[in-house]
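step: validate -> pass
step: tokenize input -> pass
step: predict -> running
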Amino acid sequence: MNNSAQYKVRVTKDHLVFSAAHFITFNGNICERLHGHNWRVAAELSGPLDENGYVFDFIALRDRLQKTVDSLDHRVLLPMKHHMIEVSEIDEEVQATFEKRRWVFPKEDCILLPIENTTAELIAHWIGLQLMPVIGSYESSQLELLQIEVEENFGQWAICQLTIPQN
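step: predict -> pass
step: emit ->
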């Protein structure tokens, strides 16, 4: 095979979307209003071809990405590591506070993310981390890079590239 060739596989489908609410903070103490988006997700893997001529199995990548996207669908996305947003679970509710503002949601409507802020960039990073177990299970692989793209609003993409550790 040609050693100078570079290979990638990319998965993006009409059903790799989720509708979710969030709010972000910026510039120290500015907090957006709670609002929602119809987010779209794509994943791309880079690496050499394996003995079958694959970079990675499209179906395995698609299925794991779909499972992750489904977990976010019709949820309120809340950051657990924000230094000014306090999120707590109380019985069957989730409470989020920021300065004098307070939101209370049914627990089943929320996903508590281990991130600092619910920006598209950090959501892309979190999604990438969710894909790592299936990527790591692909034994003959020498994958190099995972790229996750999250479209928060039409034409506004955040992209996170993660280097894949070699075993």
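step: describe -> The first strand starts at residue 8 and ends at 11.
step: cleanup -> pass
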